[in-house]
Amino acid sequence: CEILSSLPLQMSLYFNVYFFPFWWLITVAILYLKYPALSDYYKFILVTIMILVSLTELIRLYLGYVGNLLEKVPELAGFWLLTLLPQLPVILFLLFNEGLKIHSLERAVHIIFAAFLSFQVVAAFFTLKRMVNTLATRFRLTEFHRLEEQRPGPGISSPALGSSSRGWLGPGAGWRTGPEGVAR
C-alpha cells in the first residue's frame, strides 16, 4: 500500500485555506476604496471576478483536499482543472492589468496568490500523473491475476481448446457425455 498523496501539495492547500480569507478581505477593501475611480466596465468585471473567484476557490480547495488525501483521481483532476483554467488566468489578469489601478498591497497579495496557484498546478499535475500510473498498474495486475486464476492447470485438458475427445465438439454440435456419463 503505497501512499500516493503529495505532502507539498497538501501543505500548499493548507496554507492556501488560511491565506484566501486574508486575500479576499484585502481585495474587497481595496475594491471598495477604488470603486468610484474605476470605469463602468471595470466595475462590472471586478465584481464578477470577485464572485467567480470566491465560489471557485471554495470548490477548488475542497476538491484538492479530497483528491489528495483520499487519493481520488477525479477530484484531484477537477482541482487541477479549476486551478489551471479559471483561477490562474483571473489572478494574472488582476495582477497585470494596469487599467484596474492596482494598489501596492493588492499587488503583493495577488503575487502570493499567483505563487500558490502556480505551485499547485505543477504539484497537482505530478501527483495526478503518479496516481493514474499507479492505479493503471494495479488494474493491469488485477486483470493478470484474474486471467491466471481462470487458466487451467497443467495436465487438465481445456474443452475450449479442443484438445480432448470428450469435450465440446464445436459450434452447433452440442455436448457429449464422457465415460463417466457426465455431460461435458
Automatic annotation (TrEMBL):
Tree of life domain: Eukaryota
Main location: membrane
Topology in membrane: Multi-pass membrane protein
Quaternary data: Part of the tectonic-like complex (also named B9 complex).
Identification of the protein by name: TMM17 protein
Gene name of the encoded protein: Tmem17_2
Residues covered by region (Disordered): 150-184
Function statement: Transmembrane component of the tectonic-like complex, a complex localized at the transition zone of primary cilia and acting as a barrier that prevents diffusion of transmembrane proteins between the cilia and plasma membranes. Required for ciliogenesis and sonic hedgehog/SHH signaling.
Family note: Belongs to the TMEM17 family.
GO cellular component: ciliary membrane; ciliary transition zone
Location within or outside the cell: Cell projection, Cilium membrane
GO biological process annotation, one example: non-motile cilium assembly
Sequence intervals crossing the membrane: 13-32, 44-65, 77-96, 108-128
PANTHER family per the UniProt record, alphabetical: GEO07735P1-RELATED-RELATED (PTHR13531), TRANSMEMBRANE PROTEIN 17 (PTHR13531:SF14)
InterPro entries: Uncharacterised_TM-17
Keywords: Cell membrane, Cell projection, Cilium, Cilium biogenesis/degradation, Membrane, Transmembrane, Transmembrane helix
Matching Pfam families: Transmemb_17
